[in-house]
Structure formats: structure tokens, C-alpha cells
Amino acid sequence: MAMSQTKRVLTPVENTPTEIAVSARNITKNYGAVEALKDLTLEFPRGQLTSLLGPSGCGKTTLLKIIAGLLKTTSGEVEVNGKAVTGPGPNRAFVFQDFALLPWATVLRNVAFGLELRGVARSEREARAEKYIKDVGLAGFEQSYPHELSGGMRQRVGLARALSVDAQVLLMDEPFSAVDEQTRRKFQEDLLSLVQNENKTFIFVTHSIEEAVYVSDQIAILLPRPSRVSEVIRPSGFRNKGIDNIRRDPEYLDIVDNIWASLRSYVE
Amino acid sequence: MYVFGYRLPGLSSLLIWGLLWEIVGRAELTFFVPPLSEVLRTLVAIIGTPPFIKALSETAYAFSGGVFAAIVIGVPLGILMGRSRLLDELLLPWANMFLSAPLTALVPVLMVLFGFGMKAIIITTALFAIWIIILNSRAGVRQINRSLVEMAHSFGASPVDAFFKIYFWAALPEILGGVRIGIIRAVKGVIIGQLLISIVGFGALFELYSANFLMAHFWAVLLVLFALAFSISEFLAYLERKVAYYAAKR
Ligand SMILES: Nc1ncnc2c1ncn2[C@@H]1O[C@H](COP(=O)(O)OP(=O)(O)O)[C@@H](O)[C@H]1O
Ligand SMILES: [Mg+2]
User: When you count CB atoms within 10 A of the terminal residue's CB, does the N or C end of chain A come out lower?
Assistant: First the structure.
């Protein structure tokens, strides 16, 4: 019922086939006896933002780390630009839920750290880092240390670090879950313009239905273990009506309701 | 310290103990404790004399050799133990045992193995210092935030990069704490080495002075030794404070 209604609402307006940047095929992942993912298949169109949405513990982080090359699959494989993933690579960058900043390094060095590990010369990597520090709105904080910043500012550092290596695919694991509500809304708006302006593929993990619908071109709903994709939703109508109108667009509200209807039974 | 509401400068408690020492010394209760003033006069007299300089440099040589070895071996070993389950299970029982073992009892064995020279003294010194350095470095690595390691890995860090750019710095507060305690233990080690293995350095001076009942000389050298150990340990405590800003937030 809910499904058919969702489909009606979500029929894409334009049906242009998009290129696939990342594809996950028949991924199974077991942690010992725990089946975290079972035979999961999902494709991520280039230049778009795909959300992985589902209750905690359903394997979102696991899938993201498999795509990042940080975890090995039990079976199945991930391809990025048609090449199988065997480990981390320069075409992907990760934004961590807990920021993962070096507490002993300045904002400048933290942002440049990805480039430092890739062997970019100091003057060049600092110049690039400075540009991205400005882009994420942290100009003036180059010499600050992470413990001197608020949670929102720290995640901006994490984001600038991921952007500065100029990877085609950005993997974000609940990047906004540790920041306050106002900052979070600002982040969501910034993320939308980032998706528009940078020609990158975003894979975005969240457990917030509203957040997923607000920022995504495509939402994959994962159900609890052993989890697989239960539904893929592609909102299309409200994306170009301006960010201020999204939250009261009827399509937005319908999708939020429908997702809740299909997830409700899994929440005790 | 406050007396009648007045704040006394730091170390002023030392003045009271110094005064007490002087009184006990003047009272001539025991030949073992000469007045502090006499000890200080002797100190000024012997400092700078060739035998003292020789003792100081011999001791400094053995001490720094032993401490250097303990740090260069202990820190990487501790970090590796913190990272590798296998290495940890192999070495942890030994490290714990030697940490609390009466190492002095091992010195004769070292003499048999390494002879009666400087080498055995340096090894004794290192042996006193290394265990706490290993264990602290290990503890420092084990509390590291997993996502820092994953972050480095995801940006393509080689194992060497991860070691020097992540593990070392993340463990640095604990490493410095271990080195500080290790150095205090090394002072003990070097003097025991110089007394038991071959009579050189400050050990020789202690031996000479106590055998001839030159108590003022004896205490003077002891004071120098305390002062040296105290300054090194304070210097490391200062370094520890410099990294304390992130110790609580890793
Ligand atoms: N290292 C691990 N060892 C064992 N089980 C794990 C490990 N990591 C995750 N799991 C389990 O796998 C499931 C999925 O975890 P995760 O991917 O973190 O979910 P999510 O990010 O959706 O909250 C959870 O049930 C979790 O308990
Ligand atoms: Mg997660």
C-alpha cells in the first residue's frame, strides 16, 4: 500500500539515464556470527547525493566503510568508476561522524592532512587547505586547535579535509549527528549547494528521515539486520524550487510520511 | 604553603627541613649527619675538581646511554605491543614481571654476560628504565581513537606514516609520563651499576667517601645527584604539560 503510493508520488519528472559512479553488488558482510549486510545491491549515480537511511544498527556505517575500502566484504564487491575496490583510494574521501581530527594539529594541518599523506609538498598543500578552510567558512581559524572549536566548526574542518583531496566520491557517515539543530540546518543547506557546485558523488548516511529527504537525489532505505535495500526513493519535484520552500513542499511532506510508514514497524 | 595567612614562596618547606638538618648536624647527634652548611661548603669545594668532573662525566655517559637505549627500544616496542595482539601476548607478561622484579638481583648475571665495564652499567641502567616506558607507550596506543587510525588509512597512510603521524602522537602524553618515571628509575640503575659492577663515577665517589667516613662529601654528592634527577624529571613534567591540552581530548 504504502509502497504503491510512494511510487506514484515519486515518478521522476525527467527520466534521463545517469552514469553510475559507484555500484555495490551482492554485498554480504558478517561480523563473526552477526550478519550485518546480506546480498545488498545498490547503485550510486554520478554527481548526485544518495542517502543511506535506516534505524541504528542496520549496517549503514558498515556499507559506507566497505565502499571506502576500510572493511572487506564477506562476499560481493564494490566498483568505483568500473574498477573493483580493494582498499582505500584517492578517488574516495571519508567524512567521519566523530570528525576524526588530529587533536595535536592546527586546523590548517588537519585540513591539509589528507594531502600530506598523499605526499603533496607543504606550500602547495597549505595553499589548497587555506582555500577550503575559507570555503567552509573557517577563515581566521587556521591556527586554532580542534579543542578550541565547536562541534559544528570541527565538522567543517573534517569536510574541508575531505574536499581538499578532490576525490570524486565523498562518503559521509552521519556527519551532522553531533552538531546542534541550527548548525545542522545550515549544514544541510550548504550541502545542497555543494552537491550543485562540485561535480562529486555524495554518499550520505543518516538516520534522520527529514534530513535524508531534504538533501537527497536518491534515498536508499535499509531495513534491520541482515539488512538489504528495501526501497529506493528519488524525490524530484521540489529540488529546484529553492531551499527555503523544500520543507513545506507537499511532495517533501508526503515522502517523509511514507518513509515513516515503512520504517515504523521496525521501531519498538 | 600559608603561614598566618601569608603565602610563602614554593619550596619554602625545603628551608624548614634544611634548618632542621643544620640543627641536627650542629647537635652532633651522629657522625652520619654533618651540618648542612658544612655539606654545602664541601659541595662548593669539590664541584669542579677533576675527580668530581670525571665521576660526573662517567655517570652522565652511562646514564644517558642507558636512558637513550631504553627510550629507543622501549617506545617503539610498546607501540608495537599496543597494536599487535600476538606481540602483546608474547611480551606483556615479561614486561609486567620485570617492572616489579628486584632488578638489583639480576646485576650479577649481567656482569657474567657483559663483563665488568661500562657496557654492563649501561645495560643495567636501561633495564631499570625500559619496562615502565614499554608499558606506558603500550597503554598510550591502546586508548587511541579508532577513527583516527581509520581516517589515516582512508587517506592512504602507509604503515610508517600511521606510526609516526598517528600512533606516536596519540600516545605521546603517556610516553612522556613513562619516560619521566623511567628516568627516575634509571638514576637508581646507574648508581647500583656503578656500585656493584665496577666502581666508577658517582658510585666510586660514594664508595670512597663512605669508606673514609667523609660524610660531608658523601652528602654533597648525593645532593648533586638529587638535583640532577629532579631537574630532568621537572623538564619532562614540563613537556608533559605542553601536550596536556590534547591528552584529555583524543
Ligand atoms: N566490529 C564489529 N564487530 C561486530 N559487530 C559489529 C561490528 N561493527 C558493527 N557491528 C554490528 O553490525 C551491525 C551494523 O552496524 P553499523 O554498520 O555500525 O550500523 P549503523 O551504522 O547502521 O548504525 C550492528 O548490529 C553492529 O552491532
Ligand atoms: Mg553508524
Answer: C
